[in-house]
Specification:
Layout: H1 9-19, H2 29-36, E1 39-43, E2 46-47, H3 48-59, E3 63-64, H4 67-70, E4 74-75, E5 78-82, H5 84-91, E6 97-102, E7 105-110, E8 117-120, E9 123-126, E10 161-165, H6 167-172, H7 178-184, E11 188-191, E12 199-202, E13 205-206, E14 209-212, E15 215-217, E16 236-243, H8 247-250, E17 257-263, E18 271-279, E19 283-293, E20 300-311, E21 320-334, E22 337-348, E23 358-359, E24 382-397, E25 403-423, E26 437-463, E27 466-487, E28 503-504, E29 522-540, E30 546-566, E31 573-594, E32 599-610, E33 625-638, E34 643-664, E35 667-692, E36 695-708, E37 721-730, E38 738-747, E39 750-754, E40 763-767, E41 770-780, E42 785-792, E43 800-804, E44 809-812, E45 817-825
């Protein structure tokens, strides 16, 4: 006879769980002993109530709850050796619930939103609600972000579109570089017009706002000296990408978006891993990561990461070598003050490096296709880069839950290049004979130094009987870039190094080039940029369901640019430009309304102000881009924030947007731009997180179109539509050591028009829409040792990944490639 016949349905499950523990002594001293014992469990994933019942039976510890508390919730189960507290943490992971001590066992209770752990006598049950840090969460989303406003808000509470590439996502797909991460990021299009060069686009516009731990840095979207683009993922916990204007915190806010790289931090327990991998084209990689306390009290903690990678490429004669080092210390100066200091180092040393892609138009104006293995650079072309990034921060807790943070960042980078390429700007190839192109030789060195400082105070305040939040601060950026170059073909075809201008047959070229002499000519390209600003943002809560976020920034900006060509026997060509802006106001406004416990509507407005380095045909700098960014949307979160979804409509209106417009008069090597009014409209859809225990999903669709004042589409080398889907699932039961995953990336077609006096007429180059399929699998050999395999472009799709209007060239996307890696955690 079933006891359920005598009990109401909503109480029967709870009674059964308590009955499972009847064998325990009535008094609980024995239970305290049981809590300390470590047992082995093998409970598969399933409904939370069922898993809790089974766990109570095996652990000998009673827990009481009502059916409504677990209705609709699932558990990933528990496998392995755990104490009672550790077992509860596994069973309740991601449910938003915790086990709470009572006189006769445990009770199921909601996890407090501001607490991550609950003390149960001598037992600690760790809550699994997500925080900002993603490492160790196994999640494809994060609990909070401050990239948009400086306020620590959940993704749902932030009135702009934010995507987060977590540590788990990067590990699942073996994403090792920033370029690889951004290729998988929702709404982001990545193009590589040459080796280790990145053009990054969001909402149809170039991205050049990069941050480290929220500290803005200076970069220019189309430069070859971009230390940020070389960033290796070994040292980062996550990459947050905010799509849309971001002038509130970064000053000169670009309407495209911001990439925030958040570093790994020390842990208060000893841990680490060793990782080794091999991949296609003789790729080898090793990584070591060690973290933990440096004294008995754990008030001093440290972390060290080192990685090394070398390999060839599907591109002939291209070899790449990269070395990464990272060290960081945290010190609790007292219970209210935290000091963090650290430094990271990166060295990139490629051979066979090319600054451009391959020819895409022949001399008759027809689209020209090369082999995707062809390399336009000589075998010994180099582009060595090194960067050192030092940082420090001091965080102090003030009275009334306020805190003060002072952060500083110093980035120093060098570049030393020496290359000879088959230049596509000097002519067009004869498809029948292979003639028509010539060598272009360049050599030089580049240094850049930038310093940043940010002082921020934040905390709650009371107004009209309700609690609100406020953040205000000051930051500055100081950027200096120096480049001394030699080479290039002059506008009149004169060679300045004995090599440029010499003809070459691309069908017979073996990637050996003549030796350049570099006897006389020189070019200087110097940039000095300085900006500072004060900012303030507040999150007002007129009601429990309504949040109003208001902010503003007042900035000063100074930009000096000098470009000079010293050419023997010719008049020097040069420009000397200055931009001065004082008291520029950048307002920000956002509204979030909670429709229910899971859904929120939002709207936001951001002003745009962005000085730019682009020149018109006369060589004069374009005026700063100015405009407005509008966005409305719906955001939702499920399972205590472990699954986030968003849908957004946006519009960006710009004045002085830069549109490619031939070359600068007197210099065929400098692309000219015209200032134009443009409007970008689009939609972003995204879902990321955990659908069920062990099942992660990242899915997105993005659409954006840029049109000029005549309603004609511009910037056609950027796709209008992107679809990105990737999912992983940890198998249940006896196969629970195996995780399988896969996904697809699809994008719409791109095209450009090549208009040159060397052609019989304008020529159109296009790449139709295409999709690539990626797979992964991971097997946990033991609890500490795992092996992961990834396959990219499974069906070996051949496609042009980028079109470069500056050099009339294109670059092929990666063919099918495989990587195998193994990791031992300790």
């Amino acid at each position: 006879m079933s006891l359920s016949r005598f009990l109401p349905p909503h109480r029967s499950l709870a009674f059964a769980v308590r009955l499972a523990a009847v064998a325990l002594p009535v008094a609980l001293p024995g239970m305290a002993v049981a809590q300390q014992q470590v047992q082995r469990y093998d409970i598969p994933a399933g409904p939370l109530g069922t898993v809790l019942s089974r766990y109570a039976q095996l652990s000998g510890v009673p827990i009481s709850f009502q059916t409504r508390q677990v209705a609709g919730l699932s558990s990933q189960g528990v496998r392995g050796e755990f104490s009672v507290g550790e077992g509860f943490a596994q069973v309740l992971r991601g449910t938003g619930l915790m086990a709470q001590s009572s006189e006769d066992g445990f009770l199921l209770a909601p996890l407090p939103p501001t607490e991550g752990a609950l003390e149960l006598g001598d037992l600690t049950v760790v809550g699994q609600g997500l925080g900002a840090t993603t490492e160790g969460t196994d999640s494809y989303t994060t609990g909070s972000s401050n990239s948009a406003t400086g306020l620590n808000l959940s993704l749902r509470e932030t009135p702009q579109t934010i995507s987060v590439m977590t540590r788990q996502r990067m590990d699942d797909q073996n994403l090792r570089s920033l370029g690889e991460v951004l290729q998988q990021t929702p709404g982001i299009n990545v193009q590589s017009p040459g080796s280790d060069r990145l053009y990054v686009f969001s909402r149809g516009l170039a991205v050049d706002n990069y941050q480290y731990d929220g500290m803005p840095t200076t970069s220019f979207a189309f430069t070859q000296a971009l230390p940020q683009a070389l960033s290796d993922m070994a040292i980062y916990d996550r990459v947050e990408v905010l799509r849309g204007a971001t002038g509130l915190l970064s000053g000169s806010g670009d309407p495209s978006g911001t990439v925030n790289l958040v570093r790994k931090k020390p842990t208060d327990t000893f841990r680490g891993h060793i990782d080794a991998g091999i991949g296609s084209w003789d790729l080898y990689r090793g990584e070591v990561d060690v973290s933990g306390p440096l004294n008995d009290s754990a008030s001093l903690r440290g972390r060290a990461v080192a990685a090394y990678q070398q390999g060839n490429s599907f591109t002939d004669y291209l070899q790449q070598e990269k070395t990464i080092g990272y060290g960081v210390l945290e010190a609790d100066l007292n219970e209210d003050t935290l000091l963090t200091v650290g430094v990271d180092y990166l060295r990139s040393d490629p051979r066979g490096f090319s600054t451009t892609g391959l020819p895409v138009v022949d001399s008759q104006g027809r689209q020209f296709k090369t082999s995707r293995h062809d390399n336009p650079a000589s075998r010994d072309s180099t582009n060595r880069q090194e960067s050192i990034n030092a940082f420090a921060s001091l965080e102090h807790k003030l009275a009334y839950d306020w805190k003060l943070k002072v952060a500083a960042n110093y980035l120093y980078g060098t570049r030393d290049y020496d290359s000879i390429i088959v230049g596509t700007t000097t002519g067009f190839v004869n498809a029948q004979t292979g003639n028509g192109l010539s060598y272009t030789a360049t050599k030089g060195d580049n240094t850049q130094e930038q310093k940043g400082l940010d002082v921020m105070a934040s905390g709650p305040f009371q107004l009209f009987g309700r609690e609100h939040e406020l953040v205000f601060g000051f930051n500055l950026q100081d950027y200096e870039n120096r480049r001394n170059g030699f080479g290039n073909l002059l506008a009149n075809g004169t060679s300045n190094n004995g090599v440029s201008g010499k003809p070459v047959n691309i069908y017979t070229w073996d990637n050996y080039a003549p030796t350049a002499s570099y006897n006389f000519n020189r070019e200087d390209d110097n940039i000095d940029q300085w900006q500072s600003g004060v900012y303030l943002a507040t999150r007002l809560k007129p009601t429990d369901d309504l949040s109003v976020i208001l902010g503003s920034r007042v900035s000063d900006y100074r930009y000096d640019a000098e470009l000079i060509y010293h050419v023997a026997s010719l008049m020097p060509y040069g420009t000397d430009d200055q931009v001065r802006v004082h008291g520029e106001v950048t307002p920000y406004a956002g509204v979030v309304y909670d429709l229910s416990e899971n859904h929120s509507l939002y709207a936001s407005y951001t002003s745009i102000f962005k000085p730019q380095p682009y020149r018109d045909r006369s060589g004069k700098l374009l005026d700063p881009r100015q405009g407005d960014n509008y966005e409305i949307g719906l955001k939702s979160e499920f399972y205590n924030g472990r699954l986030n979804t968003s849908a957004a409509l946006f519009e960006v209106k710009l004045d002085n947007d830069a549109i490619a417009d031939g070359t600068v008069d007197g210099n065929d090597l400098i692309t000219a731009y015209r200032a134009s009014k443009t409007t970008t409209k689009g939609i972003d859809l995204e879902a990321s997180g955990e659908l069920l225990p062990g099942w992660n999903l990242a899915a997105s669709y993005s659409h954006s179109v840029v049109k000029d004042a005549d309603h004609d589409r511009v910037k056609t080398t950027i796709p209008t539509d992107l679809v990105k889907v990737f999912t992983t699932y940890r198998l249940p039961g006896e196969l629970d050591r195996l995780t399988l995953g896969g996904g697809v990336n699809w994008q719409s077609g791109i095209h450009m028009t090549v208009d040159s006096w060397r052609l019989p007429g304008p020529a159109k180059v296009k790449q139709d829409d295409y999709a690539t399929v990626n797979l992964m699998g991971r097997y946990d050999i033991t609890r500490q040792w795992s092996a992961t395999a990834t396959v990219n472009n499974l069906f070996d799709k051949k496609y042009i990944s980028s079109l470069d209007e500056n050099f009339y060239s294109g670059s092929w996307g990666d063919p099918r490639n495989v990587m195998l890696s193994t990791r031992y955690e300790f």
